[in-house]
Every structure is written in structure tokens, then in C-alpha cells.
């Protein structure tokens, strides 16, 4: 079993404190959801875990099986087993999807253990079929001209090909129609298992109808203010974030 542990994490962007002491422990075999209103620091949390240079960790720790993640370079974090599906995936001209995936897989493997072309194609075929992706998408430039839904599907393809230990999925449901939502959920559910843990960040409860989380955290104003099981997400759907913020006496800055 692997564990990703976030302890008292404080993160600033340009001297403004966004995360104000986040605590979170995720084990492989578990899917956690982080829900919260816009502007509350959800993407900041994912960026800090992955080591985005604009986000400064001012206090606290991130440990992967006890190893200090904050001391690792971005690529080391990926090799250590962390993966981020971004809220806004970037487009890369000149690199095809297939080339990108193959180098991403190989970058995480030892020199004498690179994936063979045959094995790669077989795996790619299998995952693209599961995600209802047309074959031609493998040869298109990474995310270039992809629709919002195609980009999200492509993030899940990366997840399934790379098979990280821990995946942070930031708003993978945003902009998806119901069919695409089902496909994306099918991909994440196929990853479920003893060797995989995930942190699903979402604004809406809708995605959690398809991917049932083991643990649900509510984030407000840079902190996790409530933790529960899948029922908590349903309560949020019924009451909105207002119900919980009033109960806890938290004044929400309205960013929506
Ligand atoms: N690059 C940035 N520069 C300045 N402020 C930022 C930047 N990115 C995010 N913020 C601010 O940090 C806060 C948290 O943003 P974010 O983590 O994206 O929230 P969420 O993902 O929960 O919607 C917001 O107030 C946002 O305006
Ligand atoms: Mg966000």
C-alpha cells in the first residue's frame, strides 16, 4: 500500500495565501473527492502537489510513502507515481498524442525496461476503445484543436496509459455532456484497485453519481472544513455550499 500525506499545507501565489493549512491522507485503493466553491484553492492544491513553480509552499509537508515530495523536481514527482489531469490541459504543437504518451511512459521506466512498440500499440488500442476514442486521435497533435470534452477524455487516456500510483483529477467533468461524462467515469473506475489512489476535484456532485468516492472533503477558503462519505456530496447537491458554510460560520467570498 502507498500513502500520499498532506500535512498543514500552506500555499501562496504572489504573496497571497491561498491554502491555509490543508490536511489530507490518501491511501492506494481509495478515491477521495474534494468539493468546494470556485476560487477556494482546489486547483492550487493540485498545482502544489505537482510542483507548479508559481505556487509557493510556505509551510507544511507533502509526503509520498514518507518521502518528501516538496524536495522533488516536477519530473521526479511524476516518476515517483504522481499524476495530474489538469483543469485546463495545454496544447502542444508538433508532438502527436501517441508520441507524447510513449515518452511519458518511458520517462517513468528504467533504461532497460522501455515499453516495446508492439506492447505500446496494443495498450493504446485497448484504452482508446474503452474510452470510445477514434483511432485518428492518436496521431493528432497533443490537444491541438481538441474540443473541451476531447481534452478531458485525452487526460483520462493519459491516466490509463501511464498508470500512476496517485492521480489528481482537477475538474475532469467540467464541460462534459452526459455521454462524455460516462466515458470519463468508466476510465477512472477501470483504474480503481489496490495499487491506485485518486483525488477527484470537482465543483459539482454530478460526477460522483458515476464514480462513488470513499471519502468526500469539502474545501472552503483554503481549508478542508468537513470530511464524510459519499452521502456528504449528496447533501451538498441538495443544500449547496451555503448550508455548510452557514453551519460552520464561514463567510464565503463570492467568486461564482
Ligand atoms: N496565477 C494566479 N495569480 C494570482 N491569483 C491566482 C492565480 N491562480 C489562482 N489565483 C487565485 O487563487 C485563488 C484560488 O484559485 P484556485 O485554486 O484556482 O481555486 P479553485 O480551483 O478552487 O476554483 C483564487 O482566488 C484565484 O483568483
Ligand atoms: Mg480549479
From TrEMBL:
Coiled coil: none annotated. SMART domains: AAA. Keywords: ATP-binding, Nucleotide-binding. InterPro entries: AAA+_ATPase, ABC_transporter-like_ATP-bd, ABC_transporter-like_CS, FeS-cluster_ATPase_SufC, P-loop_NTPase. One of its GO terms (molecular function) is ATP hydrolysis activity. Pfam families: ABC_tran. It comes from the Bacteria. Residues 4-246 form the ABC transporter domain. CDD domains: ABC_FeS_Assembly. Belongs to the ABC transporter superfamily. Ycf16 family. This is Fe-S cluster assembly ATP-binding protein. It comes from Granulicatella balaenopterae.
Amino acid at each position: 500500500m502507498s500513502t500520499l500525506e498532506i500535512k498543514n499545507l500552506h500555499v501562496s501565489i504572489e504573496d497571497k495565501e491561498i491554502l491555509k493549512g490543508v490536511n489530507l491522507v490518501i491511501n492506494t485503493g481509495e478515491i477521495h473527492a474534494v468539493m468546494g466553491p470556485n476560487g477556494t484553492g482546489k486547483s492550487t492544491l493540485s498545482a502544489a502537489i505537482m510542483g507548479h513553480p508559481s505556487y509557493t509552499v510556505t509551510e507544511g509537508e507533502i509526503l509520498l510513502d514518507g518521502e518528501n515530495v516538496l524536495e522533488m523536481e516536477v519530473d521526479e514527482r511524476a516518476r515517483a507515481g504522481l499524476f495530474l489531469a489538469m483543469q485546463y490541459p495545454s496544447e502542444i504543437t508538433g508532438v502527436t498524442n501517441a508520441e507524447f504518451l510513449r515518452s511519458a511512459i518511458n520517462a517513468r521506466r528504467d533504461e532497460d525496461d522501455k515499453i516495446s512498440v508492439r506492447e505500446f500499440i496494443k495498450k493504446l488500442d485497448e484504452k482508446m476503445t474503452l474510452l470510445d476514442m477514434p483511432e485518428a486521435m492518436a496521431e493528432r497533435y497533443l490537444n491541438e484543436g481538441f474540443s473541451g470534452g476531447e481534452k478531458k477524455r485525452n487526460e483520462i487516456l493519459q491516466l490509463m496509459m501511464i498508470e500512476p500510483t496517485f492521480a489528481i483529477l482537477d475538474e475532469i467533468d467540467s464541460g462534459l455532456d452526459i455521454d462524455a461524462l460516462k466515458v470519463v467515469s468508466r476510465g477512472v473506475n477501470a483504474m480503481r484497485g489496490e495499487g491506485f489512489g485518486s483525488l477527484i476535484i470537482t465543483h459539482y456532485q454530478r460526477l460522483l453519481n458515476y464514480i462513488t468516492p470513499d471519502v468526500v472533503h469539502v474545501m472552503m477558503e483554503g481549508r478542508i472544513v468537513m470530511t464524510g462519505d459519499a452521502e456528504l456530496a449528496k447533501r451538498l447537491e441538495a443544500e449547496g455550499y451555503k448550508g455548510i458554510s452557514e453551519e460552520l460560520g464561514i463567510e464565503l467570498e463570492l467568486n461564482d
